[in-house]
Amino acid sequence: MDQKADSAARASARGELGRRGIRLGRIAGVLVTMDWSLLIVFALITFALSVGPLPAWHPNWGGLMVFATAVSAAVLFIASILAHELSHAIVGRRLGIDVRHITLFVFGGMAHMENEPRSWGAELAMAIAGPVTSILLGILFFYLAGVAAGPGAMDTQDPMAALAKMGPVATVFIWLGPVNILVGLFNMVPGFPLDGGRVLRALLWGATGNLVKATQWAAAAGQGFAWLLIGSGFAMIFGIRVPIFGEGPVAGLWIALIGWFLNNAATMGYRRVKAQETLGDLAATDVMHRDFEAVRPDSTVRAFVDQHLLGTSQRAFPVIENDRLQGLVCLADVRRLERERYEATRVAEIMTPIQHLLTLSPEDTAGDAMNRLAERQVNQLPVVADDRLLGMVTREDIMRCLSFRRGR
């Protein structure tokens, strides 16, 4: 395999997940991905600190010192958000909730659950872990600021004078302290899908024994809070000062966008749980389809395109040899290869190998399939047992089943 084909194979192996952001690695077995939109947060924090608090606190600092301190604060803030999400993942995994992936993005972070919590107690413990972590981090940063500033530096009656005496390290810590505490408190607002909304859902679930009803009520609370944010944001855009949030068109636009995101997330969260109820105890094997075309790994890309890819609506093709699934190949894999190499390149060189595929087992439910399709933003999942392909579950299969059951 030459260098270009090898690069194509490696890109395919990374899968759809890696192409949507920067893979930061694995922590405690959890894949951490940074969405490109997080760069907006990094830039905003760096800019805001560079032109606002830092020059006011340290008028004698040069521009380079101010900028370096602002960058350090932005990096540590993102690391704090990662710690918040990791606490969700670690607690969830200990309680049987499969969390394999964390995404950091413009509105914070998200621990992607492969399955819904099996009990209200597990939901409660996982939900509250994040805010507790953020608040503890805030307290820790206050302590570290005192250590870095030196004895007596925090005891002055003049806060601005105390800040002016602090070095860059203590300044970063003193900023991160209240910010992390505010993040923890904000996430405890009882509106789904914020952590406080999940706490509310857990308590309602425990009281009623009905996850769907609990989600409906928690989502309604989340939508109410979201519309409060949207309304406050628009008021700030038009120059009205809003208690707690303040004023200003830039801050107002940001708050309105957060409200829009929360409203959509609350709606989708309820729809997903409702869909899981509709699917009931159906297994993935009950909704999968078996009428698919397969490809041999030694077929050329040219033969794959001409004989399989063109003239069919199938999106992904299993690569099978000796009745064993070797991987999946799709149009995106072909597009990464130059046309003049189609004849000389084998399908095995561009496919996503089975070890890098997200698969389903016969024991997985249709609800598990729906969750994984949504969380990973893929269109199909193979159902595999002992490396043998049993069938494929697509978004269309799930939607067809939901439509039939709702109609019935």
Structure description:
It is a single chain. The protein has helices at 3-19, 38-51, 53-57, 63-94, 120-149, 159-165, 168-187, 195-208, 211-237, 249-279, 284-287, 301-309, 331-335, 347-350, 366-376, 395-407, and strands at 21-27, 30-35, 99-105, 108-113, 316-321, 324-330, 352-353, 380-385, 388-394. It has 408 residues and is of the alpha+beta class. It folds into three domains: 18-188, no CATH class; 212-279; 284-407, Roll (CBS-domain). The chain has a four-stranded mixed β-sheet with strand order 1-2-3-4, sandwiched between helices. The model is unreliable at 1-19 (pLDDT under 50).
* Spatial order of the strands forming the largest sheet: 1-2-3-4
Q: Poorly predicted ranges (pLDDT <50, ≥5 residues)?
A: 1-19
Bulk shape: globular
Total tally of structural domains: 3
Largest sheet: 4 strands, mixed
Cα separation of the termini: 53 Å
DSSP helical segment count: 16
Q: Tell how many strands the DSSP assignment holds.
A: 9
Gyration radius, rounded: 25 Å
Helix content: 55-70%
The computed structural class is alpha+beta
Write down the overall mean pLDDT: 86
Secondary-structure element string: HEEHHHEEHHHHHHHHEEHHEHEEH
The multimeric state of the shown protein is single chain
How much of the residues is beta strand, in percent?
5-15%
Write the layout of secondary structure elements.
Elements: H1 3-19, E1 21-27, E2 30-35, H2 38-51, H3 53-57, H4 63-94, E3 99-105, E4 108-113, H5 120-149, H6 159-165, H7 168-187, H8 195-208, H9 211-237, H10 249-279, H11 284-287, H12 301-309, E5 316-321, E6 324-330, H13 331-335, H14 347-350, E7 352-353, H15 366-376, E8 380-385, E9 388-394, H16 395-407
Parallel strand pairs: 2-3
Antiparallel strand pairs: 1-2, 3-4, 5-6, 6-7, 8-9
Helix pairs in contact: 2-4, 4-5, 4-7, 5-7, 5-8, 8-9, 9-10, 10-15
